[in-house]
Write a structure and sequence with these properties.
single chain, about 80 residues, alpha+beta, 5-stranded antiparallel sheet, about 40% strand, globular
């Protein structure tokens, strides 16, 4: 389960910060950079290094697509509900 906590949108991309509530507390903060409805970068916050580390290549396209659907449902809830109908 994920929970979007912040977003920043520009003309070319969107950065979304979210908590992955299924992970241990120290590893919950994640960040994605989205472009054209696609995850370009997935990063996890490393509390020991005090920075985000990219982990995109560690996950399958299927997982990233599923994550994108979860994020979209929270970012644009009305749009997602209309598409589901």
């Amino acid at each position: 389960m994920i929970k979007v906590i912040a977003m920043k949108e520009t003309t070319s991309n969107m950065t979304v910060y979210f908590l992955n509530l299924t992970e241990p507390k120290a590893f919950q903060l994640n960040m994605v950079k989205l472009t054209q409805q696609k995850i370009e970068i997935l990063a996890i916050y490393n509390t020991e290094e005090d920075r985000f580390e990219e982990v995109t290549l560690l996950f399958s396209k299927r997982y990233l697509d599923h994550l994108m659907k979860q994020l979209t449902a929270q970012i644009h809830p009305y749009q997602s509900n209309a598409q589901a109908l």
